[in-house]
């Protein structure tokens, strides 16, 4: 006698539970509960979240696909600490994605959108006044994420979001000597360009934002011995390489 087929509903519930576990683990990583190189124990997470190990295992695999977690046979999962080159390459990709987002978003900006983005910048400044680098990073993520949402291109946003937690985790929690005020101030030229409705200025401000952030990171990233980048290896961002809005199909 053949075994009955698994219930599609049961599989769906398990998949949704794995997504919830992944969101919880990602929030813990971003908030510093799990620092880079720290282990994430399946059995412990399952107990804490009152679930079986199966959705925890699926969640860890999803985080591994994002590059946030590394899974080693017989050793389990740990939060990844990528090499300096890997982070800087991700910066270069993110610069290109956000430049395209600005090209798409600026013509769509409403006064309410600009006000909301200004509020995020104000929140960054308030957090910087308190010396709270993690809060600055959280508002930073909301600022950049909102520009992506206004751009209204689902494929672009999906690719961007695959990089965002990877970058925010390490820059907030690993890089020594981070200056919250400097980080907050980096967003002011972007806001000014958005407020003026100037597409070219917004693209340029975003490219300069990532150029400065990448150069700062290259000097301070705690990489493994022998893997430091030379100045010529740091990524550069060229406006001429940016795709135009017409080169990508807008999604509905």
From the alpha carbons, calculate the radius of gyration and give it in angstroms: 20 Å
Shape: globular
CATH topology of the largest domain: Four Helix Bundle (Hemerythrin (Met), subunit A)
Strand order within the widest beta sheet? 1-3-2
Count every beta strand, where a strand is a DSSP E run of 2 or more residues. Answer: 3
Assembly status: single chain
Strand portion:
under 5%
| Alpha carbon gap, first and last residue | 49 Å
Instruction: Give the class from helix and strand content and strand pairing.
Output: mainly alpha
CATH architectural designation of the largest domain = Up-down Bundle
CATH superfamily of the largest domain: GntR ligand-binding domain-like
Portion in helices: 55-70%
Per CATH, the class of the largest domain reads Mainly Alpha
- Averaged pLDDT, please? 80
Largest sheet: 3 strands, antiparallel
The number of helical segments is 10
Write down the secondary-structure element order.
HEHHEEHHHHHHH
Describe the overall structure.
- With 252 residues, the protein is mainly α.
- Helix content is 64%, strand content 4%.
- The protein has two domains: 8-79, Arc Repressor Mutant, subunit A, CATH 1.10.10.10; 84-247, GntR ligand-binding domain-like (Four Helix Bundle (Hemerythrin (Met), subunit A), Up-down Bundle).
- Strands 1-3-2 form a three-stranded antiparallel sheet.
- The longest helix is centred in the N-terminal third of the chain and has 23 residues, at 8-30.
- It is globular and about 55 Å long.
- Residues 1-12 and 225-252 have low confidence and may be disordered.
């Amino acid at each position: 006698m053949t075994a009955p087929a698994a219930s599609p509903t049961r599989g769906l519930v398990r998949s949704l539970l794995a997504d919830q576990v992944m969101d919880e683990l990602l929030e813990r990583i971003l908030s510093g509960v799990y620092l880079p190189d720290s282990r994430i124990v399946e059995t412990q997470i399952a107990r804490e979240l009152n679930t079986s190990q199966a959705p925890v295992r699926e969640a860890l695999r999803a985080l591994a696909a994002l590059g946030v977690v590394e899974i080693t046979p017989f050793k389990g999962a740990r939060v990844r600490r990528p090499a300096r080159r890997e982070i800087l390459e991700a910066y270069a990709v993110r610069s290109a994605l956000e430049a395209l987002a600005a090209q798409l978003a600026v013509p769509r900006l409403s006064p309410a959108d600009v006000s909301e983005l200004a509020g995020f910048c104000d929140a960054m400044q308030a957090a910087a006044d308190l010396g709270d680098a993690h809060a600055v990073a959280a508002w930073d993520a909301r600022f950049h994420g909102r520009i992506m949402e206004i751009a209204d291109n689902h494929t672009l946003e999906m690719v961007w979001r695959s990089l965002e937690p990877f970058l925010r985790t390490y820059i907030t929690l690993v890089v020594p000597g981070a200056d919250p005020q400097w980080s907050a101030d980096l967003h002011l030229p972007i806001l000014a360009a958005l407020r003026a409705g100037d597409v070219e200025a917004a693209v340029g401000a975003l490219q300069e934002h990532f150029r400065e952030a990448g150069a700062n990171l290259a000097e301070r990233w705690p990489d493994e011995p022998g893997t430091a980048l030379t100045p010529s290896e740091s990524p550069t961002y060229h406006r001429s390489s940016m795709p135009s809005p017409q080169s990508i199909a807008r999604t509905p």
